[in-house]
Amino acid sequence: MFYIIGLGLSDEKDVTVRGLEAIKKCSRVYLEAYTSILMVQKDRLEAFYDKELILADRDTVETQSDEILHNADKEDVCLLVVGDPFGATTHTDIVLRARALKIPTRVIHNASIMNAVGASGLQLYNFGQTVSLVFFTETWKPDSFYDRIKENADLGLHTLVLLDIKVKEQSEENLARGRKIYEPPRYMSIPLAVSQLIEIESLRKTGILDPEKTLAIGLSRVGGGDENQRIVAGSLKELVEHPKEKYGEPLHSLIIVGKRLHHLEVEYAEEFAINRDTWRAIAQDVYGCALE
Q1: Cα distance between residue 129 and residue 19, in whole Å
Q2: I need a labelling partner for 143 at 20 to 30 A (CA). Which of 34, 49, 51, 67 fits?
């Protein structure tokens, strides 16, 4: 049996009972370590699960999946995934490969950022398409995300923006020369993400990401408890100018607030506002939200 098991958002104790039972009986346990990260190191997981973990990087999961699936038709093998197994298309692909090899598969779900964003106070059924935002370079600034945000905005829906992470990435030079030398890990911060959004807005000029009139909510380490989790709300201008250290440690995510904003959402998220008066004023005057 091939298991793909969600680990949740925070630490070793977020695994479900069903997931832990499956891990215990597997002969090989792989930890996917590039689409997201937990808040604890690999050794803490190994101690809790009482299993040695094999790190699976991008190459292993995407191009060498046969190694993971080897003998999974005869023994139990699992791939551990931060969040929920189907939070990334990569994991859908490996399940399809297992099915093609006639290997029995089982998916064990867990919490992910896709539903944990409810911690912001915004209602999940008011979210539209989720988008990803990558690190810009001098020569590469993809902006297809803007069209998705606009589609959501036109419907009044919130947009969850997943921020880029770079783990075991090679520089262009090392990649061209075939050298297995990797860059230090990088995690996009909320201020950087907002600055990139504003940069594209300055080119597109539709107004959906107007720095002074668009509300947004930044989140970090969601599910990590009061000592780790940070939520900060404000206009895009306020978020980009807010001190970086106030956002906490990575991973960071960002929500662009849609115009179909309910007064309960405003009141709940107000607790996290950089400036409560500004938060309420924009919600009322720009978003048309009726507040007492």
Answers
A1: 29
A2: 34
Longest alpha-carbon distance in the chain: 64
Angle at 83 between CA 79 and CA 85, to 5 degrees: 45
3-state helix, strand, coil in the chain (%, to 5): 40, 20, 40
Question: Each residue of 210-245: pLDDT tens digit?
Answer: 999 999 999 999 999 888 999 999 999 999 999 999
Cα separation, 5 vs 106, whole angstroms: 8
Residue pLDDT, tens place only, 95-126:
999 999 999 999 999 999 999 999 999 999 99
H or E stretch at 6: strand 2-6
Cα of 266 vs its chain's centroid, Å: 23
Interval 29-85: pLDDT, tens: 999 877 777 888 899 999 999 999 998 887 778 777 889 999 999 999 999 999 999
Q: H helices of 10-160, where?
A: 17-25, 42-49, 58-63, 65-69, 89-100, 113-116, 144-154
